Amino acid sequence: MKLDYTIFESLHNPQGAKNTASWADVCRMLQDVPAFPSKAAQPLIKLGTFDNSSRGQGSSLTAISGVEIDYDAGNVTAHSAAKLLRQAGIECVICSTYTSRMDCPKWRVFAPTSRTLPAELRTYLVSALDGVLGNIAARESYTPKQTFFYGRNPDTSYVFLHLKGEFVDVALKDAANAAYLADKRAQRQREELAATTCLRAETQRNRKAAGRLVVGQVSPIDEFNNSHDVRSILKTHGYRESGKKFIAPTSQSGMAGVVILQGDDGRERAFSHHSNDPIADGLAHDAFDLFCILDHGGDEWAAIQAAAKLLTTAKGESLHSHNRNAYRQAQQAAKAQAALDKLKGVAV
Question: Out of the domains of life, which is the source (predicted)?
């Protein structure tokens, strides 16, 4: 079986090189690695491929040919881990890391998949593999774009164990599927809640904005939503389309965590599952919301004013000018009415 993997010369160089080799060849490479003068001098490997072979900002993991587990706690030996993995019947390699010592074992697991898989499945396979080990994996094992050093420390003995068995996606299919389905259920629940909650939030926002309008004025919020779509706004702000989803420019995982939901009113709204995304606040956002958050830091009044200056009426007049004139006319009408009422002896 041939698998695609990526090698990076150093931690500081985000540009890697895609390679294709048999799993047996990868095993020999990990077994016969040279010694390096320091941890930082080692190359890094990823059992997968990236956009343009880069793990830099804005790139994402596109596919995987295996998963990696990192163990740093120093309490469980590589041989103890091998016993658990052998019992589970998993094909993999376990090798010690650069800072591993006899009294503080640290090691890494490389487990190939039976075929190239979508990158989004990696988390579930890592979770299933970590479950076999007793959930002891270092947190970075779950980071999709994480790459891993490989090499020998000339001052310590190098542990290399090659276990025979089934590919990780075959051996742990049931556990990975269970994790996948549970996560998808949780995502759907969050999205359903967001879709419901956003309508209440939009209603409150629109009522607040409507309270500022006088006769003859047009709502900049409604007009903005009628003339803009969420997909275009996301792209303008660096969100990258990935299938039916988007990847936030702030995403560290490189996974597509922004979904497009369609409400009962037929309008599309964006909902983000990313943890560090400015639009990830538990709500689904229409075009004006995105304009408010991404262009105006959440300042609703500033967004309304900016939208009014940006939009035009059918006569080519800016909405800002149209509403200003409508306001003046309403003020003049109110003064005229007040004068008329006064002449009639009506207390004002």
Answer: Bacteria
CA distance 119 to 63: 4
Strands, sheet with 2-8, edge to edge from the N-terminal-most edge strand: 17-22, 2-8, 44-46, 148-149
Domain borders along the chain are 2-171, 188-341
Q: How far apart are CA 184 and CA 277, in angstroms?
A: 20
Element (H, E) at 247: strand 245-247
Distance (Å, whole) CA 23 – CA 321: 68
Cα angle for residues 338, 340, 341 (degrees, 5° grid) = 65
For 61-108, the DSSP string reads EEEEEEEEEEE-SSSS-HHHHHHHHHHTTB-EEEEE-TT-BTTB--EE
| Whole-angstrom distance, CA of residue 80 vs CA of residue 175 | 21
Residues 189-217 have pLDDT tens digits of 888 887 777 767 777 777 777 777 777 77
Question: What's the pLDDT score for residue 290?
Answer: 95
- Please tell me the distance from the alpha carbon of residue 180 to that of residue 203, in angstroms, as a whole number: 35
pLDDT reported for residue 121: 94
> Tokens at residue 285, please?
């956002």
d(CA 127, CA 81): 15
- In angstroms, the CA 228 to CA 294 distance is 14
Pair 164, 111: CB distance under 8 Å: no
pLDDT in tens, 271-280: 998 878 999 9
CA 210 vs. chain centroid, Å, equals 35
Q: How many Cβ atoms sit within 10 Å of the Cβ of residue 261?
A: 17
Distance CA 160, CA 36 (A): 16
- Calpha distance 129→5 (Å, rounded): 19
> In sequence order, what are the beta bridge partners of 108?
70, 95
The DSSP code sequence of 9-24 is S-TT--B-EEEEEEHH
Segment 72-88, tens digit of pLDDT: 999 999 999 999 999 99
Convert the pLDDT of each residue in 284-313 to its tens digit. 899 999 999 999 999 988 998 999 898 888
